[in-house]
Design a protein that fits this description.
The protein is α+β, with helices and mostly antiparallel strands. The chain has one domain: Hotdog Thioesterase (Thiol Ester Dehydrase, Chain A, Roll), CATH 3.10.129.10. 25% of the residues lie in helices and 34% in strands. The protein contains 4 helices and 7 strands, in the order E-H-H-E-E-E-E-E-E-H-H.
Length: 142
């Protein structure tokens, strides 16, 4: 399952050179993950109510071409791996209407207990959620 999040680059997201500042891509990735989670039929809020958090373990990003103020962009996100203790997401950012990405990246997240912040097995604690995640895994074509 792939989610597509449409955004418009705000002036505050650009740097002195008029190019989108690199830090904003991580924010856009998070927005895309949030949309994908909703598309799966849940939300980060519901996961937290269940007692789970999914902190970021690592992020990789490649800046292929710049985008600037007022560009319309699309962030494609998919879950590429789901295990009992971790998840991995893939992202591709496009200028709206273009077929070549301007950015691509990935992030890896752990499953931890909300109260203790200790790793947990989502397969054991929430088997239906684990099955939902495993069924949603796919790859974005590069």
């Amino acid at each position: 399952m792939v989610s597509e999040t449409k955004l418009i680059v705000r002036y505050v997201e650009t740097d002195r050179m008029g190019v989108t500042h690199h830090s904003n891509y991580l924010v856009w990735y998070e927005q895309a993950r949030t949309e994908l989670t909703k598309k799966l039929g849940t939300s980060y809020g519901e996961l937290e109510e269940m007692g789970f958090l999914s902190p970021v373990l690592s992020v990789h990003t490649e800046y292929l071409r710049p985008c600037t103020y007022d560009d319309e962009i699309v962030v494609k996100c998919c879950l590429t791996k789901a295990t009992y203790s971790q998840m991995e997401f893939s992202y591709q950012v496009y200028k709206n209407g273009e077929s070549t990405p301007i950015n691509r990246g990935s992030s890896r997240h752990a499953w931890v207990d909300k109260e203790t912040f200790r790793p947990i097995s989502i397969k054991r604690k929430a088997p239906q959620l684990y099955e939902l995640l495993c069924n949603a895994v796919e790859q974005i074509e590069e």
